[in-house]
Structure formats: C-alpha cells, structure tokens
Amino acid sequence: MNNLDNFEKQLNIKKERLLNELKTFTIENPHQKGDFHAKKEVISPDEDDESIQRTIDETSVATEHSLEDQLGMVNRALESIKQGNYGKCSNCDELIPESRLKVIPEAEFCLSCGK
Question: For the chain, N or C: smaller number of CB within 10 Å?
C-alpha cells in the first residue's frame, strides 16, 4: 500500500467519523448533500430556562458548522486524490510536505500559505 492509499484510507475513516458524529445531533438536508441542521432539543417548557436553551441551541449550531467544515475539507481532499492533484497547496500550487499531510491529511494549504 503506497502513501496515497494510506492517505485515502485515513480520509475515508475521518469522513465516516464526522458523518457519525453529525448524525448524533443533526438531520441531513434531503435537498442538499452535505448540509445538516441541528435538531432542536427542548430541555424544559419553563421560561426561566430560556437562556440555557438558547446556549444549547447556539452550541449545537456552532458544532454542526465546525463538523460540516471539516467534512468539506475531507471531501475536497478525497476529490483531489481522484483528480490526481492531492497534496498541492490550493493557494500557491506547491507540494504540501508529507509530514504535514500525515498529521492533517485534509490539509489544503502548505505551511508558507498558512491558511
């Protein structure tokens, strides 16, 4: 198994982990692939709990967006493997060091571009 196969395997494992995590507290939008919506969790009908409810909702949405962003990066990396340009910086087209890809296989930028 070569390094590219290893990276693809890592990315697919990460993709499944992210999808499973998203499924625990979101519903996938049936009309737009890769778009999820946090489920509304009602903790109490008591008005005193309104601020707690708002905090829970905001946290769920923030977590959802973070996981969606990570999933998008993983999907773009998997697509770049298919297209034969995996490991190239999206900004400057230089090769991303293998040491960086081993830590962050979905990395889109080299260290110089620092994004």
Answer: N
pLDDT band at 1 (very low <50, low <70, confident <90, very high): very low
Separation of alpha carbons 8 and 32, rounded Å = 24
Q: Which two tokens stand for residue 21?
A: 């995590």
- Report the share of the chain in percent with pLDDT over 90: 56
Contacts of 47 (CB under 8 A, 6+ apart): none
Q: Measure CA 19 to chain center.
A: 9
Integer Cα distance of 24 and 111 in angstroms: 34
Do residues 92 and 113 touch, judged by C-beta distance below 8 A? yes
Global pTM reads 0.80
Selection from 64, 62, 44, 63 nearest residue 52 by Cα: 44
Domain boundaries along the sequence of the chain: 3-86
Return d(Cα 91, Cα 70) in angstroms, integer. 18
